[in-house]
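Lab notebook, page 48
Experiment: co-folding of the full assembly
Goal: obtain a model of how the components sit together before planning crosslinking
Operator: M.T.
Materials (sequences as entered):
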Amino acid sequence: MKKQWTNQEVAELLRAVAAAYEVRNASKFKVIAYDRAATSVEHLTTEIKDLWDEGKINEIPGVGPSIAQHLDELFAKGQSSHFREVMKGLPPAMFELIKISGIGPKTAFKLCQSLKIWRKKGALERIKKAAEEGKIRRLPGFGEESERKIKEAVTQAKLKKKEKPRMLLPYAAELAKKIIAYLKSSPWVEDAQPLGSLRRQCATIGDIDIAVKTKKPKKVVAFFLKFPQIKQVLNQGEKKASVVLRNETQVDLRTQDAQTWGSMLQYFTGSKHHNIALREWAQKRGLSLSEYGIKKVKTGKVIRTKTEEEFYRYLGLPWIPPELREDQGEIEAAQKNKLPKLVSIKDIKGDLHLHSDFDVEPSHDLGKDDMETMVKKAAQLGYQYLGFTEHNPSISQHTSQQIISILSRKKELVEKINRTCAKKLNIKVLNGLEVDILPDGRLALPEKAFALLDYVIASVHTSFHQPKEKMTQRILTALDFPKVRFLGHPTGRKLEMREGYEVDWEKVFAKVLKNGQFLEVNAFPDRLDLPDFLVKEAIQHGVKLVVNTDAHQVEHMELMPYGVAVARRGWARKKDIVNTLPWRKFAKVFKIHYN
DNA sequence: GCCGTTTTCGGCCCGACTGTTTTCAGTCG
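Observation: model returned without errors.
Model output:
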């Protein structure tokens, strides 16, 4: 039986080859090449096996003729003779060790060789034991301190066998706010900003990066290290420090003075790949970039910038929004002055996915707040319209007649609100429903009930593990039902919980376009679905999106900025999002008939 | 080993911190 290689497995193999080359003291550029190929495969948005089937493996950035040939053999025969050759004679255990923070290829090899640890299985336990027995400190190049650190790292990795979980964006944002507030209470702190993946508004956040503007870096570092929630200091220097908080979150702090603040913001916002690409780009123009500024290689003169705008401007580029800094073509677009003007939270005119407490006797969870409260909130948020879309009444526990009766009552209530409170607030309330897509693609709603609704959200809530073909057909079938305006949380992913289901997106894009429908960007923190890369693909296909909160209580309506952030990361402009349209125009494209 | 808006050859991002060293290699972001 032939092995089905996943992207993660291929990336891990390439990384192992890079490590093997490093131990063998091969050219460091060869090592970097393999490492880059690994990262590139890891970040693919399609399965590498599918690319290979289509003969497109050489289109992967960082994969050239040599690596492509080895991968070809890998997929055809199940293994690559070249990779095997490179790793031959090296202890398999070292490839397990390099997954531990602080242990690189050289250290891993030295440990395995000196301690005679060969097999992968039990490698970590044997390292730990050797450390406890004081054997590591006696090895050349090691000492007591390194032994202690290795023991600690190995022990901790064992505790969290699974990969360290990432935080949801809003959680990380709240935590960062507290740290920033603490830092700003120091007289030496002129400014403090959360940067890194938080500033880029990634869906999940690994650690929190903070930059501080100051003339007294040492004092700021010392002050930071007194933050009450710190559990452990990973490292501390004159201008930076890394710590772990009691909730296991790592926080990295860097300092810079006001004159150099622009380059620090740029450097520490990343992403790493954006920075590398930008530095290579600058290098070709005789410039060398770092957090200290822009250095002219010829003269050695360093240009310091107070703002990020100045930094990019000096490079001859417009300022690039942080959400785009992922080395996904943004530098080229900036150079050609073709960066998109991204949608902003101020553009949003309505929320079309809200669950009120009106009891439709649904199979899924009901909202907590009444319609009037939510309408008032919508007005506060400056919206012109909103739509209530409770889950459909459970079809297993109701007759069609009962369902129609429930939905008739809901229709009357919405009409009443439109005549009273909504009218006063000059806001339109739509009567929608979020309806389950059954495993065969039918919608969980009796035929006659559709007439009672302004629109329907079609969503998958069950049977996530159908094969790609079947899931695609299921969704296509559902989209052809009447009144369906958009597909809710289209991939079904739950961040840090489950992957989305397999779908042929090209076919879904085509169907949605043909039917004049939309795809949702769901702003709920554990969904953020469509994901950013699919937002980008959808837009490239001309598909329009609708950004909603999926609020189940009034406070959730404030989550809209996170949905907008995902859209921005997917290069969405105002015109790509239908609920940026003012009411009349929106009603037309959303096919709502009103008096 | 990869790659091309000065190159199909000759380059390849940049700096901080740590530990074990007497000048630097390894690792990280």
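Interpretation: Residues 279 and 397 of chain A are 62 Å apart (CA to CA).
Next step: discuss with group before ordering constructs.
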